[in-house]
Amino acid sequence: MRLSSIFSAALAATSTLAFPSAKLAAYKTNSTVGPEKGHLVIVGGNLKSESIYQRIISLAGGHNASIIIVPTAGGDPSYDQNFTTAAAFRGLGATNVTVLHTYDPAVADTDKFVAPLKSANAVFFGGGRQWRLVDAYYGTKTETAFNEVLERGGVISGSSAGASIIGSFLARGDTSGNDILVGDHTVGFGYLKNAAIDQHVLVRNRHFDMFQILEVQPELLGIAIDEDTAVVVQGNDAEIIGSTYALIYDGGFWSRDGSGGKYDLPEKKFYFLKAGDKYDLGARKVVETETTSGDEL
Ligand SMILES: *[C@@H]1O[C@H](CO)[C@@H](O)[C@H](O)[C@H]1NC(C)=O
Ligand SMILES: *[C@@H]1O[C@H](CO)[C@@H](O)[C@H](O)[C@H]1NC(C)=O
Ligand SMILES: *[C@@H]1O[C@H](CO)[C@@H](O)[C@H](O)[C@H]1NC(C)=O
Ligand SMILES: CC(=O)N[C@H]1CO[C@H](CO)[C@@H](O)[C@@H]1O
């Protein structure tokens, strides 16, 4: 008890220092971790690749796994069992896909509504506006049951808004529009701690938007994922899969051709990872593998 309070007092003291190294110290004292058990599959919107769907299915336990699709971010008046993403999973061989939806937190807090989640192996959050997921499920039995899916070794996945909700900080959570990075909803479901997750990043020219969040909370790890690309997380291990890139905002810089130190780098640094690349979320460092070595032709 005493030791830990001395430690947090020391942390507080360092983080109030007003020079850049205090910022760096803040990055280092805030490790980013995914779930101890289970996996996250975080998709940057416009999910098309069969390989990403198949990764979700196989991490969930195969084609007979129970996969729950939550379309609530989408904002339609109602949803039936043939919601597009559910149909897509079924089309790829998943046999037990259930659409689960309400906008009413009182409904989300009932045992009846939560029942299908109790034996689920995966949850997939569809796209739309991420604050709708917060308004419907935050603090309810449903949110508890989402957590239990991971605790049982299952999968939490989502695309677009469904990606952002996975972070502890809710990027673009404003009810008035998706162009406000720090909005009236800033708390996500936090399956990935100390992190903000953006999506559609290259297609929508959002490369620099993450800094609006990091200016307010510099300790966060920023991850901005492009369309049809995913970050797969287990504990501190992250791997990129899919079509294009995930952008990492960790205060540092990395390049596969080793040019990290050669240029005069701007203060607002970020860098790109592609399919096959691995990242250590705890150390906030790229894991050097065959895919990260530069192959210049
Ligand atoms: C999935 O369920 C079907 C029908 O119950 C069964 O025939 C099949 O063997 C199961 N597949 C796997 C991989 O468990
Ligand atoms: C969903 O699609 C199936 C197959 O096309 C159809 O039989 C079923 O009636 C549809 N269900 C709803 C709720 O529209
Ligand atoms: C399908 O998933 C539901 C909800 O998790 C579960 O209750 C049910 O037993 C599963 N059905 C089959 C045939 O495995
Ligand atoms: C969990 C944790 O250690 N959070 C700290 C991250 O760094 C900021 C300073 O930027 C502290 O205020 C947090 O307490």
UniProtKB/TrEMBL annotation:
Pfam family, one: Peptidase_S51
GO biological process terms, semicolon-separated: proteolysis
Record's keyword annotation contains Magnesium: no
Highest taxon above the source species: Eukaryota
Sample GO molecular function, one term: transferase activity
Entry keyword set: Glutamine amidotransferase, Hydrolase, Protease, Serine protease, Signal, Transferase
Signal peptide extent: 1-18
Family per record: Belongs to the peptidase S51 family.
Name listed for the protein in its UniProt record: Class I glutamine amidotransferase-like protein
Organism: Paraphaeosphaeria sporulosa
